[in-house]
Amino acid sequence: MLLTEMREETLMEKVAIEIPDELVQEFKPYQDRLREVILLGLSQLRIQEALLLYKRGLISFGRAAELAGLQAGDDPSGEGFRCATTLVRADGARGTGMKVVANAGPLMALGKLALVHLLSRLYGPVLVPSAVYEEVVICGLELEQPDAYAVELAIARKELKVVDMDDADLSEIVRALPLHRGEKQAIQLGLRESADWVLLDDWLAREEAQRLGLKVKGTLGIIADAYRRGLISLNEVELIFQAIIAREDIWISDALVRRVWGELRGVR
């Protein structure tokens, strides 16, 4: 196994970290950047632990956000995530920013990576069709998926807005698409809103959306936007992309991740 040492300059304290043999090869490229790796891991761990405490009813929403380091205020509803989730029509009031609609894939991936907050910082409040909310949050909470808690937190903070939709809202063209219900609702909402972007990771859904005149962007495009806007550094992008490749629960091809990484390094 690999033993590394970290040294905190101000405290002059050495800490030995023992890494299991099966992780040695993954850590070797980052031996000189262990501080970044640990800080990123701690950030995700804090969010997951805070959401778990909230779910068990041990702390309030506001305290969970504070422990997660998200700098949120008290729960505006006073009743937690479920009451803070507001269903709005697409023509309801909206804050400033671009018109962006999100499907499940990018929400799940960003939730697993503790990066959901990037959406509102890049685009303002993002619209989420109700079928996507059911898939990501309702089903996700039943399975105790950490991304479900992260997305629910973003909804409670009004960074995401759930839009109430049903099959009657779909046009005949969209209803006939060979896609899942959430993807159809995301495309229909994008068309109805003349959205600047529809966030989709599935290739078939992207092709169908583009065929109908919509502009699409996926998880990697969102992360690239965050880098170009100065919200995250190139080093952070590298760590995030490495996490995407390593995780079995984020379904983005390694080849695509490496291609986007190469493009970003070219504009450094």
Read across the widest sheet, the strand sequence of neighbours is: 3-6-5
Based on secondary structure, the structural category is mainly alpha
The total count of strands amounts to 8
Helix share of residues? 40-55%
Low-confidence stretches: 1-10, 71-96
How many distinct helices? 14
Give the SSE order as H and E letters: EEHHHHEEHHEHHEHHEHEHHH
* Rg from Cα: 20 Å
Average pLDDT? 81
For the record, the CATH architecture of the domain at 85-266 stands as 3-Layer(aba) Sandwich
Q: What is the straight-line distance between the termini?
A: 35 Å
Q: Return the CATH topology of the domain at 85-266.
A: Rossmann fold
Describe the fold and architecture.
- The chain is mainly α and 268 residues long.
- It has a domain at 85-266: Rossmann fold (3-Layer(aba) Sandwich), CATH 3.40.50.1010.
- The protein is 52% helix and 12% strand.
- The protein contains 14 helices and eight strands.
- The chain has helices at 24-27, 34-55, 61-67, 81-84, 104-112, 117-123, 130-142, 146-156, 172-175, 181-193, 203-211, 219-228, 234-246, 254-266, and strands at residues 2-8, 13-19, 87-88, 100-102, 126-129, 160-163, 197-199, 216-217.
